[in-house]
Write the structure tokens for this entry.
Amino acid sequence: MSINIQRNQKKRVVIVGGGLGGLRLAEDLYGSGMQVVLIDKNNFHQFPPLIYQIASAGIDPSSISFPFRQIFRKRKDFYFRMAEARMVDTEKKILQTSIGKIDYDYLVLAAGATTNFFGNKNIEEWAIPMKTVPEAMGLRNALLSNLERALTCATEEERQELLNVVIVGGGATGVEIAGALAEMRRYVIPYDYPDMDSSLMHIYLIEAGDRLLAGLSQESSQKAYEFLKSMGVDIQFGKMVTDYRDHKVVMKDGTEIPTRTFLWVSGIRANAMPGIDESHLGRGFRFKVDEYNRIPGVEDVFAIGDQCLQTSDAAYPNGHPQVAQVAIQQAKNLAKNLKLINQGADSSELTAFHYKNLGSMATIGRNKAVVEIGKFRSQGFFAWVLWLVVHLRSILGVKNKMMVLLNWLWKYVSYNDSIRMITYATKPREVEERMKREQTTHLGEDLME
């Protein structure tokens, strides 16, 4: 079965993944004279830098989630299909998805990355990752449910398990969620749960290395450490988590921390695309690409963002960092090159990609952030304001910018959020049955038909 999209005389670009890179590429290809098809397993784009604020009930999911059909409304030669990409036949130029097949002239892999559990199946089963909006909502529900249960549990041992939070990974996500939860403990629990001793809630941040925010300078790392320590976060360096059993996080040195809220933000790996030989994979299961984001030896297949490993950039011989700006800049460059290729240009006329580092930043909490832009470095209130401005500018839509700004302002003066609700989505039976049918119907389809 084929995806029902009518072919015309124009070349077709199929983009797998509507993250920051895939979305930017689709936008920049508008008016290019090519037909653009965007494939994503969700019907919305999500803004990754603020996902952690959903988990801490700081903002509503709809504030950083944007329906694709609304973004590309009334655009000619653009099509969106909610589907999961499952396999590609690079010889026939056919992409197999959960809803059928689609042929392409150019295929761009922009499906990003997923959490890397480094082969530990037990941790993968029990830990809570933080890569998507649904995962953040799951963490929010777990946190709030555990607080409610802590008021009525039978034993002190169970109460401590419910109130302990263990975060594994001292990168930007780990630091930001630790800070957000520390503020939640200070400003929310005493008012929402007056009959609970908020000091019983312990937040542990576990890092296998010797400092936080390894991608930033030593100065910024030290400042982030000082901010978190002042907020009461228990930071442990040189600790490697090896297991989770009996509601306990187990370290390599034998120490254990009891918890029922176990967050894993320690590393990512690129999403796979069966059908492309594993010889094209590099570190982190990323597709090795040339300076034009082409996968060498695979005709008309490109990869951008977290899914690609580009070592041709002299400034980044081991590949670019897996951050939002890399994906966005690669998308811009690839859009220009695809337009040239569509016009018959050869490789000598294409523009090689070179990443321009626009800086790094992380927020630790109210009036606390670290920012590095070139040689400029800042910590504290000014860095926090700069962080707010940069992220507000990056959010799509004026309405969503205003919603997030108002949420932040209201939270800044009151911490009286109305979104601290425990909600579990349920799917209508018909939808569940249809999804099961799709999973079985197309799983065995042969691309060679």
